[in-house]
Every structure is written in C-alpha cells, then in structure tokens.
Design brief:
Blueprint lengths: L10 E3 L5 E6 L6 E5 L2 E7 L5 E4 L4 E2 L9 E2 L4 E6 L10 E4 L5 E3 L8 E6 L4 H23 L1
Parallel strand pairs: 1-4
Antiparallel strand pairs: 2-3, 2-11, 3-4, 5-8, 5-11, 6-7, 8-9, 9-10
C-alpha cells in the first residue's frame, strides 16, 4: 500500500529483493520508500511485507525537536494502521519488539531490502485446501 499522501507520486509494487531507501518525495507531504536508482517512484508495500535494514532504524521524535530516536532493530514488517481514519497516515513498520513506527517518521536515507512479500490469499487458500484434503485422505486410509 502507498499512503494516501503519495497518490500524486508515480508508484510501483515492491518485489522480493528490491533495494529501497526511505525518502521524502518532492510532490508529497510524507515519506515512503523508493528503489535505489528510482528516487521519484514510490515503492508500495503490502501489509505483511518483511524488510531488512542495513543499520538500526532511526526515526524522528513526534515533536521533531528532540534528537532522532534509534529503534535498535534492523528487521521490520510493514503494516497498516489507522484504518478507520481515511485522511490519516496508514503506512507503518512493526518491529520484533512490538514497536510500531509510522513510515512518515522514518529518517530519510535509510536503506532496506525486501525480504519477503505476504502470501497472496489465493495461494493461502489453495494450501489450506490441500492440507484439509490430505487430512481427510489420511483419515480414510487409517480406517481401512
């Protein structure tokens, strides 16, 4: 997903292995991710996408007056927040220790790699069906 404030920015979906950089886009009031070498193209992440940062993540404090906050984590999962508020920022990163940081607070210039995209619902449903079918077949074979 790309935040509502990135609708006027050219965008594309993320791919596994993409090298990204946290960016403040010129035609936007927010930050997001761009691919290395594509500074004016927002890379949209789906909820559940996993990222690995080169260094511990840093973000700006809420008021922006205090020094940047070091998260102390290099791996995060992209997620959506504030779904009930259509005009609020929705893009966020969730870290293994439970911290959730809006992407708009990320310091610009941080490099990350897309490790994994979320499974598509079609693939998950197919795998669940195969598991159910296998369980049924195993039960039938056990009866004989």
């Amino acid at each position: 997903m790309c935040d509502y404030s990135l609708h006027l920015v050219t965008s594309r979906p993320a791919k596994v292995g993409d090298k990204l950089v946290s960016t403040k886009f010129t035609n936007s009031i927010t930050r997001g991710f761009a691919a290395i070498g594509e500074p004016n193209v927002a890379v949209c992440l789906l909820p559940g996408t996993e990222l690995a940062f080169e260094n511990n993540v840093e973000c700006e404090r809420t008021l922006g007056i205090l020094p940047n906050k070091k998260i102390g984590q290099k791996v995060a999962r992209f997620r959506e927040i504030n779904a009930e508020c259509p005009c609020a920022h929705h893009d966020a990163l969730e870290f293994p220790d439970g911290q959730v940081i809006p992407v708009t607070r990320l310091c610009a210039g941080q490099h990350a790699t897309v490790l994994q995209l979320p499974a598509s619902p079609h693939v998950v449903k197919y795998a669940e069906k195969q598991t159910r079918d296998s369980l049924v077949l195993n039960r039938l074979l056990a009866i004989d």
